[in-house]
């Protein structure tokens, strides 16, 4: 089943992420389609075989497109995580280029999920684009990335200049400079509008791949509003963007998401789900 469109990134329609089982069901089609493409390029087939291979190639291309569109949210997440408002054309293009390159190189037989494999390429190209836009040198960008990693490793601690200097292995003067550069990047962040009751769903941008039971439970609980709830909770779209994509008012979308949250808290899976959210 084709997922509901949640917006357009780089000319591609973004859909909700796939469960593990949904993603794995696409792998045989992708592999079969790639093998068909190789055989078609050799041109050593009769007309009947050629038609069969063309169908397999088309099915594989459709599967790759579905996988790509379901992973586009990761591009948005990584752009926002780097301190930039999403919609920045250069960063958007860099992330989509990385995702397409990752899909071309992705080998399902290696056992990794596509989003895990693609994350490296997205981070690499988005970081390069951020560096170019901010006019940072290679050494400045490396220190900023190390600082951001240090901050994520100490979520409950306010790092001092001395802490940063020690963590980065630089002087306090260089630590101060790096902290200032990072603040300048963070000032570009697109502040998402939160619902009033957000304590149980206040998760970070660098969310891990959700297990299939989380996806399945939320789909069952939220029904048609699953995609909207997912995108807002994981901060890949603002509530205004979701409302526009759904063709309803912001107030109407706010009520739907609030309803999903209430249903999650009242569901038989509430304890497990809220524990999972708290770990993200």
What does this structure look like?
The chain is mainly alpha-helical. Strands 1-2 form a two-stranded antiparallel sheet. A hairpin with a 2-residue loop joins strand 1 and strand 2. Helix 1 packs across helix 2, helix 2 crosses helix 4 and helix 6 crosses helix 7.
**Helical fraction:** 55-70%
Radius of gyration: 21 Å
> What's the rounded overall pLDDT mean?
79
Strand order in the sheet with the most strands: 1-2
Number of strands: 2
Beta-strand content bin? under 5%
Biggest sheet layout: 2 strands, antiparallel
In N-to-C order, the SSE pattern is: EEHHHHHHHHHHHH
Number of helices: 12
What characteristic shape results from the CA principal axes? globular
Top keywords for this entry?
280 residues, mainly alpha, two-stranded antiparallel sheet, 12 helices, 68% helix
Which SSEs are present, and which pair or pack?
Elements: E1 8-9, E2 12-13, H1 20-42, H2 47-81, H3 89-105, H4 114-134, H5 138-153, H6 161-168, H7 172-186, H8 212-222, H9 226-233, H10 239-246, H11 250-266, H12 270-279
Antiparallel strand pairs: 1-2
Helix pairs in contact: 1-2, 2-3, 2-4, 3-4, 5-7, 6-7, 9-11, 10-11
